[in-house]
Design a protein that fits this description.
125 residues, 6 helices, elongated
């Protein structure tokens, strides 16, 4: 009960206290202390982006074309070798999900390394 009474006295005193004039140079001083935000880097494609895109498109196109023109006998041999490869992996007690997770982790690290060395990223550090 006593705390409410004390709070009401303080609030009444603050409301009835006359306001002081602000100094004329206060807005200028306040604005000087506000740090300017660095300008966000705009999205740009660098030569590495173009080179990786063209390289991946060429590799995938070559792979599709190569697989379409492989003779049926060679297709069967490749399929047999593929099955033997996966059988060896299973015998080594490494399942496909671990291989896929390791490959995804490798891709994430490679993308991070490539993107971390871009000029915009160096400016922000």
């Amino acid at each position: 009960m006593k705390e409410k009474f004390e709070r009401s006295i303080v609030e009444n005193a603050l409301r009835s206290y006359p306001l002081a004039e602000t100094p004329p140079d206060l807005p200028r001083l306040v604005l000087q202390r506000i740090q300017k935000m660095p300008r966000q880097a705009t999205f740009r494609l660098f030569w590495l982006d173009w080179a990786l895109g063209i390289f991946l498109a060429a590799v995938l196109s070559f792979g599709v074309l190569a697989l379409r023109h492989v003779p049926p006998v060679l297709q069967n041999q490749l399929y047999i070798h593929w099955l033997q490869f996966w059988q060896k992996i299973r015998l080594a007690r490494i399942n496909e999900s671990f291989v896929l997770a390791a490959f995804c982790g490798f891709l994430i690290v490679m993308v991070w390394l490539i993107w971390a060395n871009r000029p915009e990223q160096r400016k922000l550090r």
